[in-house]
Fold:
Amino acid sequence: MDDPQEPRWLTEEERRSWMALVSVLIRLPAALDGQLQRDAGISHFEYQVMAGLSMSPGHTMRMSELADLSDGSLSRLSHVVKRLERRGWVRRTPDPGDGRYTLAILTEEGWKKVVETAPGHVETVRRFVFDPLTKGQTRHLGDIGDRITRAIDPEGPCLG
Structure:
C-alpha cells in the first residue's frame, strides 16, 4: 500500500510532459514579447491590456475587470496604464455609474496602435502555437488549458 507521507513522484511520461510545458511557459512569453517589442515597441502585457480594451464595448472597461482579463494585479495594471496614458493610447476617468471605480478607455490613437500591431502578433502566435498543431491538437490544447486554469483558480474567469 502507498505511504501517504511519500511524495507522489512524477512518472516518466508526466516528467516529460511537465518539462515540455515548462519550456513553453518560459520560451513562448519571451518570443511573443520579443516580437512585440521589436515590431511595435510595446510589451506583451501592454498589448494584452490594449487588445482587451479594443474588444470591450466602447473600448472601455473598469480597471478591476481589465486586471482580471489581462491576468495582472491592479497595481501592475495601474503602472502599465500610466505608461500607456503617457503615450496617448489609453486614458482613465472615474466611472460615472459608480465613482468608486476607474474606467480605462482606449483612445483613437490606442485603437490605431492595436490595429497596426495585431497582424504581426497574430502571425507570431499562429507560427509558434497553431501551425505546428493539427486541428485536433488545437482543440485538445484549449481543453487542457481550461482544465489547468480551473485547477489553479476554480472561481477565476476562464477566458477560453
The chain has a mean pLDDT of 93. The chain has one domain: 15-149. DSSP finds six helices and three strands in the chain. Residues 15-149 form a domain with the Arc Repressor Mutant, subunit A fold (CATH 1.10.10.10).
